[in-house]
Structure formats: C-alpha cells, structure tokens
Amino acid sequence: MTRPLSPSVHEAAMPPIITNEIDYWDHYAHGVTDKPREEALKHAFGWTQYEGHGPGDELLGDPLSALELGCGRGNAVAALALKGVEATGVDLSAAQCEEARQRWGDIPGARYLHAEVLGLLATTDQRWDAIYSIWGALWFTDPKRLLPLIRKRLSPGGRLVFSHAPAVPGSYGIQGMYGNGFKGRRVWIYRWAYEPATWADLLYRHGFVDIHARVEPAPEREHVGTLIVTAQAGR
Ligand SMILES: C[S@@+](CC[C@H](N)C(=O)[O-])C[C@H]1O[C@@H](n2cnc3c(N)ncnc32)[C@H](O)[C@@H]1O
C-alpha cells in the first residue's frame, strides 16, 4: 500500500487551479520576483525585455497625466509619478494591484486601479495625456475594440505608446495559447500580433496620426527584438 502524502507535501504537489484569464494573471503575479525598491526604480521604465536597453519614457512626450494598461507590479507608474506625472496603472489581476499598492502606494501621484481595460475605458470620463502599455493589456486585447476607446480617452494630441514581442513571421492576428501547460486545467489567453505596417494602418484607421511602428533590435544580433509603436490622437 502506498503511504498517503502528508497534507503539506500533498498541497505542494497540487497543480495550480487555473480556470480563466483572471486566475491566469493572478497565478502569473505570484511568479514575479521583486527587486529591492531602489534597484527596481533604476530600470523601472523600459519598453524592451532587455534591462537598460532601448528608449525610455521620453517616448511619452511630456505628459501631465498617464495611464498604463496592464501595469503589473506598477514599477513604471511609480517611476513616472516620481517625476511629477499623475500616473495611474490599471490591471485585472487583484494580486498585481495589491502588490503595486503595497510597494509604491506611498508615492504621491501613483494610483493603481483593479479593472479590466475595456471596462475601465468604456465607463470613465477621464482623459489622459499619455496612455501606454509595456508588454501589457494592449497585447492581450482585441485592438479593434480597444483602440477606439483609447482614442476617446486621450487628450487632444495625446500619445499612445506600446511595446511587446514582434509577430512571429507569417503568424498574424489573434493568437491563442494555453496558459496552464498542456496537461493542466484548460485555460487559454489571446494575444494579437501584427507587423509594424499593419499596426500603423490599424492606428490610422482609428484616428491616430504621427504613427511610428518599428522593431527595436535586440542587444545581440539574431535575438528577439521588441515591437515599439508610438502614435498621437488626431485633433
Ligand atoms: C506580461 S504582464 C506585464 C506587466 C507590466 N507592464 C510589466 O512590464 O512588468 C501583463 C499584465 O497585463 C495584465 N492584463 C492582461 N490583460 C488585461 C486586461 N484585459 N485588462 C487589464 N490588465 C490586463 C496582466 O494582469 C499582467 O499584469
């Protein structure tokens, strides 16, 4: 007869129960390792997956107010607030928002909202000078639904900036992926992938101007670069 596992060993061996997108992102949140505060702030604002590489917050212009879509731990929001920007981060993961508030809640001007981006943007009447997303919710939301809402919530001439992985060549549009492994509970999430020219076209058709969409090369040749897009709300 096999000996039953003690409760603690049994619990440790249990696979996570992930059944939907929110569970997925909460689970993701628990896997994030936080650096000490000062160190986290040093590279808090970056668009690429390579620390200290690529452009910084200058892409936002000189906003008085900014909203980050899918802010995760909220480091970038904290860094902007320390520069005097009224900076708000929104994230659908309660775990991420809670961590962000605990870590950065003492910084005047930094605010973290627990919400889903489409719901927030559709119901608020606030406007921001800059709306941005760093490998965040913009990547995981249908741009045809999201871009009109962003356009409405940007101040006239306000900027939209976002970054995420470039499309895998030949694989464009909606991309589904299982989020809990192929043997776990069924959960999937979606991402949207386009070439820079397609992003430019999409943005233009949704009322954006001065659009720059490109792939920032990685620090090493042949490594995965970063799609970075900037655009301005047409007046
Ligand atoms: C890959 S993480 C990036 C977090 C952060 N921007 C960073 O650079 O560390 C993506 C974040 O987007 C959030 N997210 C995904 N879809 C979202 C949505 N529809 N509304 C709000 N947040 C969302 C997730 O909860 C997660 O914290």
UniProtKB/TrEMBL annotation:
Among InterPro entries, the record links this protein to: Methyltransf_11, SAM-dependent_MTases_sf
User: Domain named Methyltransferase type: which ranges?
Assistant: 67-162
GO MF terms, alphabetically ordered: S-adenosylmethionine-dependent methyltransferase activity
Give the protein name, as stated in the record: Methyltransferase type 11 domain-containing protein
Xref: Pfam families: Methyltransf_11
Protein's organism: Longimycelium tulufanense
Indicate the secretion signal residues.
Answer: none
